[in-house]
Amino acid sequence: MSRAPYERPITSEWIFRHPRYLRYMVREFSCLFIGGWTVLMVWGLHQLSRGPAAWGAFLELLSSPASVVFHLLTLAFALYHSTTWFNLTPKALPVPFIAAAHYAGWAALSVVILALAL
Amino acid sequence: MARSNKPIVWGPFAAGGTLTAFLTPVLVLLTLLAALGHVPEALAYESMRAFASHWLGKLALAGVIGLSLWSAAHRLRITLYDLGVRADALVAALLYAATLACTGLAIYDLLKV
Description:
The structure holds 2 protein chains of 2 kinds.
Chain A: H1 19-49, H2 52-62, H3 65-87, H4 89-92, H5 98-117
Chain B: H1 6-35, H2 45-53, H3 55-82, H4 88-112
């Protein structure tokens, strides 16, 4: 006697079965915002290469309400990506204070870039 | 042992993930300030052009853009699989091709600045 082979159903409802799974998905969805923002920067670079007027138009595009909302969401997702990434460093590199060292480096780098850019 | 192309796609993912963890929040903060009307000095046309004109600036911009896009594309590929999209070869081909196209455009524009 033979039976039809079992086929595991493919679903995405598992995300909601546990808060941990949902946090995992939120972390993974950060890629949409980081990737989207980077594509926006590629467009900015294109406008930069076309001269001051095109760059001005790009800055104008940035200040639209949709862009402001997108930036706020991207900042939140990017911060979440950073913390989850640094919290995993002890698993990749089991050295004392490795996560703390990453947080310190992150803070220092951010301050230096802000100081240079503002 | 079966040959695997995993290290080739995973290496840039890890590098890009680390790079975006360190850099993206502060860079997004800068463009957010510009979006709110307080354009940082570094984002003024002359300073951006000067930065993108120097070979070190070009290298930094191309590297950050390429690795950020690659890590986002790779993560999106894995996420789509987790969500039940089983056409992994197609998804991977589309996402990696889009990444390479965007990075190529960025390099092309950088060479023109």
